[in-house]
Amino acid sequence: MRTVVFDLDGTLADTSGDLIAAANACFRGMGVGDLLDPVRDAGVALRGGRAMLSLGMERLGRAGDRAEIDRQYPVLLEAYRSAINVHTVLYPGAMTAVEELSAEGYRVAVCTNKPEALARLLLQRLGVLGAFQALTGADTLAVRKPDPEHLRETVRRAGGVPARCLLVGDSDTDRETARAAGVPSVLVTFGPNGDAVAALTPEAMIAHFDELPDVVARLIG
Q1: Is 9 part of the annotated catalytic residue set?
Q2: Number of separate domains in the chain
Q3: What is the pLDDT of residues 102-121, one digit of tens each?
Q4: Which of these three, 82, 100, 126, is where a domain ends?
């Protein structure tokens, strides 16, 4: 069974605004105010909570303060959970492409480095969780992207065959995951990291989800 696997943050949805808000809640709690900008720092937000905390600590002149980052990380997760879809939006055409692929007989799944419970909550709040046959997060398995087993197990849980899949993503992590698994990657160019995508030499790039079904058919039949 052919399977199309999607990354979540920066691929299916622009989650950067809510992620930045959660990180800034941590910094306000530390008494230093908002350190991250929702526009300028959107690309960092999509690399996860610790990346945002690290950037903020760097701006405070405390780049090596791992202990403070470790203290703030659960605070960030709780702040994010409590306001997970205030600013988040699905990218245009995302779910139309998912529905079209499903109608064509592909299995569709989500493989994200966001904690699984938060990923499920977000997709549920967005009203699209039921569109996917499987979802795995950073803590679902003993490994996570770019380890290829994260992708392969996602495909298995969706009822697919790992050798007949591709990964749709937005980052070097997604590109390296697909490369390690020996399958194609399709990277989107409409997210905050879009300018850097071409240098990653994926098998395909798309500027809008309208392009995805034809690209999938070309790459995995």
Answers
A1: no
A2: 2
A3: 999 999 999 999 999 999 99
A4: 82
